[in-house]
Design a protein that fits this description.
It is globular, with a radius of gyration of 21 Å. 44% of the residues lie in helices and 14% in strands. With 441 residues, the protein is of the alpha/beta class. The two termini are 32 Å apart. α4 packs across α5. It folds into two domains: 259 residues, Glycogen Phosphorylase B (Rossmann fold), CATH 3.40.50.2000; 157 residues, 3-Layer(aba) Sandwich (Rossmann fold). The strands form two sheets. It has a seven-stranded parallel β-sheet, with helices on both faces. A seven-stranded mixed β-sheet has the order 10-11-9-8-12-13-14, sandwiched between helices. The protein has 16 helices and 14 strands. α1 links the parallel β1 and β2. This is Glycosyltransferase. It comes from Sphingomonas immobilis.
């Protein structure tokens, strides 16, 4: 059986697409092996997949930082350099060795941009590399630049010729800065594995040697741009939706709450920002009361659901089952949560906490599907006023339904798996085309 390694590091928004693609690859006859963080191995195995630890879990990172969970999350959310310096770079030497061991007899490595060991191992073993880009902004297109605080200097879409030149200059400046800071650390690991120095010019991007680069999001959310490489395919959101890794259903208390009244507003901060939520959920509950609406608050953890009046609090609920029953979804803007909200066809309010979440919120606003709100401005009164606009202006709901029907027909995991299989078969010279289903109906 054709063994293929899939590797990532990050939150559930990073892990779930990998699991979905791995399951789709297995249906095509591959033997997928997930190389992930220590604290994500159990979930992968519960999904019925082989999995090995090659990266530290969050508790190990937090322990090395000498911080509590809340403090560590706040620091990582507040400064993107911290993610590089405290999580990704320290793990590079050991993760490279671990990944090389598991990839010895693999046909290819499928990786997100943040596993810096993957290109090194693929080059050393002489096997193809497939890059996954989980968010549109990470394509770094001069035509469709990121809309985040770190990229506030960019010229926004629609971009003129001069604007595109400026955006390319910014990207190249950013690459040069990353190269200066991290090239020696990257090249030390490369040298240990007998590879020539390459530096770190494109450290946070799809690797330039990739056989294939897959945008794992909807083409409605981020389309192909003229400056994207010819090996890029945008396949749709690969959907896997489980807390434990096994098949899920709604908790009976949640199902009863949904059946007992009008559709609620769902509030969630995903699987990472929820660990330093502060007053978010109390303000959310108060906002729902000001609006005279019911609400479900996904507060993290494993606690049983509790109901107080029109407010239900629970740790987690499968988004694919809960979101379609919502009246609106208020969330942090993570890639996975945004994709699920799009598929559900519901208006959204994005409260971004870091990086790509700001860009996702901008895209949702641009598409006419919702609004954004700064996390430090999230109070009951302000949130209620903003959410009320989603209900008062029916265009948000109507457009969300229209786009939702289109996104729900996309088969991101299957399209990604078939693109990977096709690319590998072409390289081997025994390509027989699959009967394809279009990524977009």
């Amino acid at each position: 059986m054709r063994k293929i390694i899939l590797t990532t590091i990050g939150t559930l928004g990073d892990l779930h697409p990998i699991i979905a693609i791995a399951l789709a690859l297995r249906r095509l006859g591959f033997r997928p092996v997930l190389a992930v963080a220590e604290d994500q191995v159990a979930k992968c195995r519960k999904a019925g997949l082989e999995a090995v630890p090659v990266l530290p879990g969050f508790d190990a990172v937090r322990g090395r930082m000498g911080l509590s969970e809340d403090e560590a999350v706040k620091r990582l959310l507040g400064n993107q350099r911290e993610m590089l310096d405290q999580v990704l770079m320290p793990a590079l030497p050991t993760s490279t060795e671990a990944l090389e061991t598991v990839a010895q007899d693999a046909e290819a490595i499928v990786t997100s941009s943040f596993v810096f060991a993957a290109p090194i191992v693929a080059e050393k073993l002489g096997i193809p590399l497939v890059s996954l880009v989980l968010q549109p902004m990470a394509m770094l297109s001069a035509f469709d630049p990121p809309c985040t605080p770190d990229f506030r200097m960019m010229k926004r879409a629609p971009v003129s010729r001069v604007g595109r030149s400026w955006n390319r200059f910014v990207y190249n400046s950013m690459r040069a800065a990353i190269h200066c800071i991290y090239s020696r650390r990257i090249d030390r690991v490369r040298a240990k594995h007998g590879l020539a120095p390459k530096g770190a010019m494109r450290l946070l991007e799809a690797h330039e040697s990739s056989l294939l680069t897959l945008g794992t999001y909807s083409p409605r959310f981020g389309g192909m741009q003229p400056d994207m490489p010819g090996n890029v395919r945008i396949v749709g959101f690969p959907v896997f939706d489980s807390c434990t890794g096994a098949a899920e259903k709604l908790h009976p208390a949640i199902a009863k709450f949904l059946a007992d009244g009008p559709a609620p507003i769902v509030f969630t901060l995903g699987s990472f920002a929820v660990n330093c939520a502060g007053a978010f959920y109390d303000e959310a509950a108060a906002a729902a009361k000001l609006l005279g609406r019911r609400a479900i608050l996904l507060t993290g953890g494993t606690g049983e659901p509790s109901v107080e009046g029109d407010i239900l609090r629970c740790g987690y609920a499968p988004h694919s089952l809960l979101f379609p029953a919502a009246s609106a979804i208020v969330h942090h803007g993570g890639a996975g949560t945004t994709g699920q909200a799009l598929r559900a066809g519901k208006p959204q309010m994005i409260v971004p906490h870091m990086g790509d979440q700001h860009d996702h919120g901008e895209r949702i606003e641009r598409m006419g599907l919702g609004l954004t709100m700064r996390s430090n401005k999230f109070t009951a009164k302000r949130a209620a006023e903003r959410i009320a606009r989603l209900f008062d202006d029916r265009s948000y709901g109507n457009e969300a339904v229209r786009i939702g029907k289109l996104v729900a027909r996309e088969r991101g995991a299957e399209t990604a798996a078939r693109a990977i299989a096709d690319a590998l078969d072409r390289q081997r010279g025994d390509f027989t085309p699959f009967v394809r289903e279009a990524a977009v109906a």
